[in-house]
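go over both lines:
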Amino acid sequence: MTIKTHRLLITELEPSMAESLHRLSLDKDTRRYLPDEVFETVGEALETISYLITCREKLKKPQVLAVKLGSELVGYVQASPISEGYEIGYHIGEKFTGRGYATEAVGAFLPVILPSLGIDRIYGVCLAENRASLRVLEKCGFRTVSEGLGVYQGKERPIRSCIYRI
């Protein structure tokens, strides 16, 4: 699967991206908001990429695509299973934030991934304090369905849950 926007290429993960994924995962926002997506070594990143490639090939969950600017990996976008269906996930490396790449990637990913998964809605859940992520969800058409304490990354914390519907 390949999705092109005016600036980005959203495409399949490849083993050659392991070093870049490792480096992107070490930024402070990943450690703060997505600690289970920090890859301390290139080997960990490669192992994860290999698993995710298998998921894509077999159309199993989760579905993760790389986000590239030219030939450079800048992040990823994903649809992951949750009890209610699927949840959107995305990360743009700290070096590339503040330029609208997350909004562009999520906005392009949604109309392609929902039909491919046979779903008409996807959820977005993030920490209430993560203003940048909340703004991405809002710009992409997600609507808040609840706000309050909830389990996030294994701990009870203030979260906001949103939904996007076709």
Summary: The CA atoms of residues 70 and 102 lie 15 Å apart.
